[in-house]
Specification:
CATH architecture of the largest domain in chain A: Up-down Bundle
CATH architecture of the largest domain in chain B: Sandwich
Oligomer: heterodimer
Number of domains of chain A: 3
CATH class of the largest domain in chain A: Mainly Alpha
Radius of gyration of chain A: 27 Å
Strand order of the largest sheet of chain B: 3-2-1-5-8
Structural class of chain A: mainly alpha
Number of strands of chain B: 10
Distance between the termini of chain A: 74 Å
Order of helices and strands of chain B: HHHEEEEEEEEEE
Radius of gyration of chain B: 25 Å
CATH topology of the largest domain in chain B: Immunoglobulin-like
CATH topology of the largest domain in chain A: Cytochrome C Oxidase, Chain A
Bound molecules: protoporphyrin IX containing FE, copper (II) ion
Strand content of chain B: 25-35%
Number of helices of chain A: 24
Number of domains of chain B: 2
Order of helices and strands of chain A: HHHHHHHHHHHHHHHHHEEHHEEHHHHH
Largest interface: A-B, 91 and 80 residues
Distance between the termini of chain B: 60 Å
Number of helices of chain B: 3
Strand content of chain A: under 5%
Helix content of chain B: 25-40%
Shape of chain A: globular
Number of strands of chain A: 4
Structural class of chain B: alpha+beta
Helix content of chain A: 55-70%
Strand order of the largest sheet of chain A: 1-2
Chain lengths: ~850, ~240
């Protein structure tokens, strides 16, 4: 075996006892040519629209996020210029409101989240020892949704119609009465469009970590970054649906006057706050976890040691994932919730500091036990410590209910959130960029610039925000454009503004440094930090396919660079002309099958454009044309299925000398299968949030009980029960379609399932006629929403049944091959389950009323 | 060169402290409290500030040592015990428990209980405040932009909104409480001494948010009643 860069015998990520013999060595250059031919992007502008490779998409995400960071930063400078003096005459109030709303929204939705998605997409396959993300086309789709949505949001500022309700968009301020313009719609529709990319990334990251690791890399020993990103992805899966649901409901209220949040008709503005912060608080940890993952990766390497307390850190990540969903109410301490409940959320909010403390001390301990090398990433890590510790401490202060009552909505909170976001996310990201740049561009940095940028950012940051705590305690509210009567705040603000400019200049210098490194840096030697992790087991810059052969027990770390390049690892080269990678068992990492991934295609950009047409029509208020966008989307999405089946059986693929594995068309537990289940977890959360809305309004909102409903009539119940029966029968048909797939008559079950789904859908639509006018009361609006949920899922089931049917007719289903049937089954059962639950809720409402 | 006399070092420090203390002053400062709730919270703040300052120094000192400490080992179980169990869990849990107890105790003392405390109404609407308070003979009087309360006695404010969400905040008297359409929140405050206390809307409510101020006038209950006049144009 090749010598290791480090003698970390105890912490191997790969189980070296599960031996897989090595493939015979080949000429590395020939392998490289063969693979690059298959994996590289198309040249020129065609490449922009067709690339799906994770390295390309990941870099693009990060570069785009950096552009939005610059835009958000310019807005921040405008805010600071306006606040520098009492009567700032630079912006009028309307413009100021748009600018701080856009600053916050851009930084959160168009910079932080996409930045971490980009890092994850780019890094994850490399660090896990695989060739791409599980769904390359989904990466590209997410990117274009992000790009298009982001462009619309930013353009709205140029046209003077940007959102102006603050980044958390509280109703009623953002409803049609108080925000008649298009501003709020831009936020609701634009952010939801962009969040498609977050959901896509979350699903991909989860499945990639569970199923696409190096052979025999057990979950329990994978690099910590894997755990951190798994935590992030799970939080995104569960955290974003409440926001997406809230945005849909608010947009429906604005567009069609369904009164979910209108107190006069049984709604409540507090429902929005709960849905928003159910997302908004986890969001903070979604942003922090990948940054912490980068720290856990970089700190031990630059300390020439191994991480202290791997198990404790994993436990801390899991703890954070759970705890962070239990504290959203700390953003609502002043809305008038009973003190008992506040005490609970206060305690939970303080408790969340414990896993954070565990991590901070584990990092310090790691440095203590090792020998710290003071390289540039380390400098940014020091910036992280100095900043984040203070942000965490002010966070604990804000968790104390009485103090929160004073500090809430003041510049104290503004200071706190920037300490956490810049300390906990931006500094680690800068460290990560400095650390991984050689792998991105193959070059070494230009001396001195990075250090200068660090000091400007660091001094500028603390100069801006440290005294802002005091400004807040002296009573300065956030979101005010002028303060003519408060001369005592003026010098504080002036200082903040001055240092703000220093900070901005520091960021500009950082960007300049990155460009310089990219263009003029000298070539970096391999594995410049002498790290053991697998992302360094490849030439610099990283090739399109990452690994010429995939790492296994004999190639467990970066020391196997040459062996992997010579094809001694698993699944060497691209002899079939396909983009192939290994799919493994989730727990142990045992290789299961060979997944064939998508190559360059314009399908993702076309899909994003189709989805975008729907959002665009909604934004334009052309509600009756908007269904065209949905139809366009369905037409394009149909074509995605093409890759998921094949017309004939393929022989197993020789992965290693005595290991042959089937291709993914011939197994049941495909990556697609795992992904469908992960998607349904998010979907179930969306549905759960909707039920939360029903429960919340029933219990808390004024204006209940609602007027008598006409829904209680018997024929509607019968119709609903009949629909449920058809769905259940459909589930059975889907089952039989799979179990009888090899028989001649098996094909009939897909047709029966298709008809059953269609009938059930018609009945659901029929139920719509019987509903009460949804604009009358929030209860009726919620019933409309519940029915809408069932109808949407009916359409999805119908599409999947149709896909299965076409697969069967085209011979894409056989003894080994299942086509779309497994996915259809999952959705069919989900449809049945949620519709049954919905019916139970409505019946309960009617019986109890 | 001879070393500087000590007073040269102390004097600037002392001179610096004066403006810093004066810097805590202001009509909206939570750090010059004028009622029991605000006093308690300010006390909590100073305690937390000192605690946090010490913790920050401690962590920075640890970091400094960690940077200079050279070791060639891999962290073993002893190190894990020290850093994870000792500092990560032990230290943080102790600090948080103490703090949480303190915070809950203070919060509990500020809760509105059903006793005979007099009630005033605060009604928020874009972008001004309307108040209803007991006037001469206890009859309710409605005023615009100024709330009149007796000094030295606690009072409950019932906070409501006509339109969007606002928030009632008199920083020198105590914490804030939101005005939410369809909801009615009650908040207990007290001004220890007669005087004028500035108040404002703390929740962003649109174009006029920066100017949505009001004033609390605490009068001497032993003296003559004030005139219960409105603020000019509804706003002080
Ligand atoms: C470049 C340095 C930055 C400066 C000088 C800056 C400055 C500010 C200021 C002064 C406000 C308060 C505006 C007001 O309430 O009137 C603000 C709000 C905010 N900032 Fe920043 N910021 C910076 C970077 C960031 C970053 C990197 C993020 C997130 C990753 C961020 C997220 C936010 C958010 C979420 C708000 C709240 C917006 C709202 O109230 O709706 N900022 N920023
Ligand atoms: Cu939070
Ligand atoms: Cu306001």
């Amino acid at each position: 075996m090749t010598p290791r860069p480090q003698d970390d015998t105890q912490n191997d990520a790969i189980d070296v006892t599960a031996d897989i013999p090595a493939n015979p060595p080949q000429r590395a250059l020939r392998l490289h040519r063969e693979l690059d031919e298959v994996w590289r992007d198309l040249p020129g502008w065609r490449g922009f629209f067709t690339s799906v490779n994770h390295s390309t998409i990941g870099k693009r995400f990060m570069a785009t996020a950096f552009v939005f960071f610059a835009i958000g930063g310019v807005l921040a400078m405008m805010i600071r210029a306006q606040l520098a003096t009492r009567d700032g005459a630079f912006l009028d109030t309307e413009l100021y409101n748009q600018i701080f709303t856009m600053h916050g929204s851009i930084m959160m939705f168009l910079f932080a989240i996409p930045m971490l998605e980009g890092l994850a997409l780019w890094l994850l396959p490399k660090i896990l020892g695989t060739r791409d993300m599980a769904y390359p086309r989904l990466s590209a789709l997410g990117y274009f949704c992000y790009l298009f949505g982001g462009i619309v949001i930013v353009l709205s500022l140029l046209f003077g119609v940007a959102p102006n309700g603050g980044w958390f968009m509280y109703v009623p301020l953002t409803d049609k009465t108080y925000s008649p313009g298009i501003n709020a719609d831009v936020w609701l529709l634009g952010v939801t469009f962009v969040e498609i990319s977050a959901m896509a990334a979350a699903i991909e990251i989860t499945v990639t970590i569970l199923r696409c690791r190096a052979a025999h890399m057990p979950l329990t020993r994978m690099p910590l970054m894997g755990w951190y990103l798994l935590g992030t992805a799970v939080m995104m899966l569960v955290g974003f649906p409440p926001l997406i649901l809230g945005s849909i409901l608010l947009e429906v209220q604005r567009a069609f006057d369904w009164p979910f949040f209108d107190v006069a008709r049984g709604g409540s503005p507090l429902l929005w706050q709960h849905l928003f912060w159910l997302f908004g608080h986890p969001e903070v940890y979604i942003i922090f976890l990948p940054a912490a993952g980068a720290l856990s990766t970089i700190i031990p390497i630059l300390s020439r040691t191994t991480i202290l307390g791997y198990g404790a850190l994993v436990a801390a990540v899991i703890g954070l994932v759970f705890l962070s969903f239990g504290l959203w109410v700390h953003h609502m301490f002043t809305v008038g919730i009973p003190h008992m409940a506040l005490s609970f959320f206060s305690a939970a909010s303080a408790l969340v500091a414990v896993p954070t403390a565990v991590q901070v001390f584990a990092w310090i301990g790691t440095m203590w036990e090792g020998r710290v090398q003071f390289r540039l990433p380390m400098l940014y890590i020091m910036g992280f410590f100095a900043t984040f510790v203070m942000g965490g401490l002010t966070g604990v202060m804000l968790a104390m209910v009485p103090f929160n009552w004073q500090a809430h909505d003041t510049h104290f909170v503004v200071a706190h959130l920037h300490y956490v976001l810049i300390g906990g996310f931006v500094f680690p990201m800068l460290a990560a960029i400095a650390y991984w740049m050689p792998l991105i561009c193959g070059r070494w940095r230009v001396r001195g610039l990075g250090e200068a940028a660090f000091w400007m950012i660091f001094i500028g940051f603390h100069g801006t925000f440290f005294i802002m705590h005091l400004t807040g305690l002296l009573g300065m509210r956030r979101r005010i454009a002028v303060y003519p009567e408060n001369a005592e705040w003026e010098w504080l603000n002036l200082v903040s503004s001055g240092f703000g400019m220093v900070q901005a200049a520091g960021f500009a210098l950082f960007a300049f440094d990155v460009v310089m490194q990219w263009m003029f840096g000298r070539r970096s030697w391999r594995n410049p930090w002498q790290a053991p992790t697998l992302e360094w087991a490849m030439p610099l810059p990283a090739p399109s396919y990452n690994f010429a052969s995939l790492p296994g027990p004999r190639q467990p770390d970066a020391g196997a660079l040459l062996a992997l390049a010579r094809g001694e690892g698993l699944l060497a080269g691209a002899p079939r002309g396909w983009r192939e990678t290994l799919a493994v068992e989730p727990g142990s990492g045992k290789p299961q099958h060979v997944a064939v991934l998508a190559t360059n295609t314009a399908l993702p950009v076309a899909t994003a454009a189709a989805i975008g047409s729907f959002f665009g029509l909604m934004l334009a208020g052309l509600y009756w044309l908007a269904p065209l966008g949905i139809i366009a989307t369905m037409v394009v999405v149909w074509r995605w299925g093409a890759l998921m089946g094949t017309e004939r059986d393929h022989p197993p693929v020789q992965v290693a000398p005595d290991m042959a594995l089937p291709l993914h068309w011939q197994v049941r537990t495909t990556l697609g299968q795992t992904g469908t289940m992960v998607l349904l977890v998010a979907d179930a959360t969306l549905y759960g949030s909707l039920l939360f809305g029903v429960g919340f309004l029933t219990v808390v909102a004024p204006g209940w009980p609602p007027p008598d409903s006409g829904v209680g009539t018997g024929w509607m119940l019968l119709l609903a029960l009949a629909a449920l029966a058809l769905m259940a029968a459909g589930a059975i048909a889907a089952r039989l379609a799979e179990s009888r797939r090899a028989q001649a008559g098996g094909r009939v079950w897909t047709r029966i399932g298709l008809v059953l789904a269609g009938l059930a859908l018609v009945m659901l639509v029929g139920l719509g006629w019987g509903l009460d006018d949804p604009t009358r009361h929030a209860r009726d609006a919620l019933r409309g929403a519940i029915l809408g949920f069932a109808v949407v899922h009916g359409v999805i089931v119908l599409m999947l049944a149709l896909r299965s049917h076409v697969d069967a007719r085209r011979g894409r289903i056989g003894l080994e091959r299942r086509g779309a049937v497994p996915a259809w089954q999952l959705f069919q059962v989900f449809w049945l389950g949620t519709t049954a639950a919905s019916l139970a809720v409505v019946v309960a409402q009617e019986v109890l009323a | 060169m001879s070393p500087l006399p000590k007073s040269c070092l102390y004097k600037p420090a002392a001179l610096l402290a004066v403006p810093l203390l004066a810097a805590c002053d202001g009509p909206l400062s939570t750090l010059t409290p004028a009622g029991p709730a605000a006093v308690q919270i300010a006390r909590l703040w100073w305690a937390m500030l000192i605690g946090s300052g010490l913790i920050t120094l401690l962590v920075m000192a640890m970091l400094w040592r960690a940077l200079r400490h050279q070791s060639h080992d891999h962290p073993g179980p002893a190190a894990e015990r020290r850093w994870i169990i000792g500092w990560g869990l032990g230290f943080s849990l102790t600090v948080l428990t103490v703090l949480l107890g303190f915070g809950l105790w203070i919060g509990e003392r500020m809760i509105v209980r059903n006793d005979a405390t007099p009630l005033v109404e605060a009604r928020a609407g874009r972008w001004a405040w309307e108040f209803v308070q007991p006037g001469p003979g206890g009859a309710p009087v409605t005023t615009q932009g100024i709330l009149y309360v007796p000094a030295g006695q606690p009072f409950d404010v019932a906070i409501t909104s006509f339109d969007v969400i606002h928030s009632f905040w008199v920083p020198r008297l105590g914490g804030k409480m939101d005005a939410i359409p369809g909801h009615r929140n009650v908040h207990r405050l007290m001004a220890a001494e007669p005087g004028i206390y500035e108040g404002l809307c703390a929740e962003f409510c649109g174009l006029g948010h920066s100017f949505m101020n009001f004033r609390v006038i605490a009068y001497d209950p032993a003296g003559p009643l004030p005139a219960f006049t409105d603020a000019p144009e509804g706003r002080p």
